[in-house]
Amino acid sequence: LGTAAAGVALVGIAAFNILARVAELGSATGLIRWISRLRAVHAADVIPRMMTVGLVPVMAISLLFAWFLGAQSGRLAEVFANGEGVTQLSRVFLALAPLLPIAVLETVLVSATRGFDVMWPQAAIEKVGRALLLPIAVLVTTRLGGDVVAVARVWALTNLVALIPAVMVWRRLLATTRTHPADLDDPRVAFAAPGTAHAQGDPGFDRNSWAAAAKAFWGFSAPRAAGQTFEVSIAWVDTLLVSALVSTSAAGIYASGTRYVLLGAFISEAIMQVVGPRVSGLMAKERGRATSHLVRTAAGWQTALTWPIYLLAIGFAPVLLGVFGSEVLAAQGALIALSFGLMAFSLFGPAGSVILMGGRSSQAMGNAAIAVAFNLVGNLALIPWLGITGAGIVWALTLVLLVGLPAWQAQEQMHLDMVSWSALWTAGLATATIGVPALFFRVFFGATWTSLVLAGLTGVIAYAVGMWRFRSETGLDELITDPAQLRPGRLLARLRAGGPKSADRPGGDRSSGATSGPKAGDDPRRRPPNLKGGRRGR
User: Do the Cβ atoms of 295 and 346 come closer than 8 Å?
Assistant: First the structure.
C-alpha cells in the first residue's frame, strides 16, 4: 500500500477501535467480574440475567456510533488527514461504520468468557484464529489489487468471522456450566450479586430484581466505561494526533515502527486476563494472602517472558525497523522509549486488574483519567517538537503512570503486597544475560542481522542457565513443581500448608489474622470485601 496509504488505514482503524471500545461501556469487564463472582458463590443461574442487562445497552450505543461514523465521515477525515488522504479516509470510515456493532458484540462475548475461568476461547478465537486470519486476509486483498478501503473493510470483517465461534462457545459454556439454584439465605449471594431478589428482601426472583440487577451491574460497569474510554484513548490517540499534527505518512511510520513490542504486550495482556477473574473470585472469598501471592507470581512471569523481547528491541531497533523500509527507521526513538516503558510496566504485573476486580471501578476510572490527561498534554507538547519520537516517549511515561498508580493503591489501600521480588530478580537476570550481550554485539559488530542472531542466541542460553541456577529466587521452581499453581484452589492449599516456597518475599507474608465480612449497609459496588490476611493483617 505504501506508507501514506498504510497511514490512512491505520488512522481509520484507530478511530474505529476508539468508538468500539467506548461503545462497550465497560460491559466486558463487568461480565467477567459478575460471572466469576456468581460462580464463586454457586449462583450461576443469575448469569443469563446479567448478560441481558449488560448487552442490550451496549448494542444500542454501538448502533448509534455506527451511524455517527458513517454520517460524519467527511468531517472526521478533514480533522485527521490532509490532501488526498481526506477522501481516502472518508471512504474508509464509510466502509467501517456498518461493522462497528459486530466488532463490539464479538469483543464483549469473547472477553466475557474469562468469567468462566477459561482462557481457551479468547486464545483460540482472538489470539490465534483472528490473529492468523488478519495478515492472510490483508495480504490476499492487496495481492488481488485491493485499495486502502478494501484493506480496512477486510480487517473489520474478521470480527464477523470471529463472532460465529464466539456465539457457539457462549452457548456451550452456558449449557455445560453446572447451575446451582441460588441460596437466597446465603449472605454471600447477596454480597456477590446484589441484583438478586435476596438483596431486595423478596422471596424469589421477579421482575423487580431486573432493575436491581441492572443497578448492580452498571454501578460497577458505568465507571469502568469511562475508564475504558480513557484507556483506549491512550492506546490510539497518539496515532490520531501524529496524523493530525504531522501527516498520515508519519502516523503510518509510527504505528508500524512500534509493532515489535506487541508480542510482549500480548504476553502481558494474556497474563492479566488469566489473573483478573481469579483475583475477583479470591476477593469474593476474602482470601487476601492468596490474592497477594497470585499478583506477585503473575508479575514475575510477566517480567520473565517480556524483558528479553524488549531488551533485544532496544539493542537492535534499526535492524528490526529496516524490514519495513528505510522510512520506518524514523521510528527508532519511539520504539526504544516504548520498550523501556513496557519494561517498567511489567514489574508490577496486573495491578490495574486488582483495582478493577476489587470493585473499585470508580478509582480505576480516576487513574485512567489522570493518565489520559497526561498523555494528551504530553503529546500536544512533544509531537510538534520531537515528532513520532515524542509520541513514543509520552506513551512510555503514560504506561509507567498507569501501572504505578494502581500498584500504590493496592499496596496502601487494599493492603495487598504488590512488591514482587521474583520480578526484580528476573529483571536483573535478564539485563545481565541478554542486555549486556546485546550491547556488546551492537557496539563491536554493528546493527546487523548477524549481530542480532548472535546476541539473541548467546543471551537466551545464558538467560535459561541463569533462570535455572536461580530458580528459587525467580519462582521457576514453583512452576516446575506445580504447573497449575495459578489456580486459586492450589494457591489456597499452599498457603494453608505454610505459604509459598519461593523466595518471592523474604520472611514470607507479613500478614496474620482475619477480618469479618461486609457489614449490613455496605455497598459492595463501591467497597471490596475486607481481605483475610492482607498485607497489614487488617
Answer: no
Q: 287: which strand partners?
A: 532
The answer, as to whether pTM is greater than 0.90, is no
C-alpha span between 164 and 162 (Å, rounded): 5
Phi, psi torsion values for 287, nearest 5 degrees: -110, 80
The single-letter DSSP state of residue 537 is -
CA distances from 435 to 427, 439, 469, 524 (A): 10, 6, 18, 46
**4 in Cβ contact with 327 (< 8 Å):** no
d(CA 102, CA 110): 12
What is the DSSP-derived secondary structure letter of residue 533?
T
* CB 238 within 8 Å of CB 398: no
Contact 271, 306 (CB under 8 A): no
Residue 532: beta bridge partners? 287
Residue 62: what pLDDT? 94
Q: What is residue 482's predicted lDDT score, i.e. its pLDDT?
A: 52
Look at the block and give the residue holding cell 539493542. 315
pLDDT recorded at residue 531? 34
Q: 57-105: per-residue pLDDT in tens?
A: 999 999 999 999 999 988 988 888 877 778 888 999 999 999 999 999 9
SS3 at position 134: helix
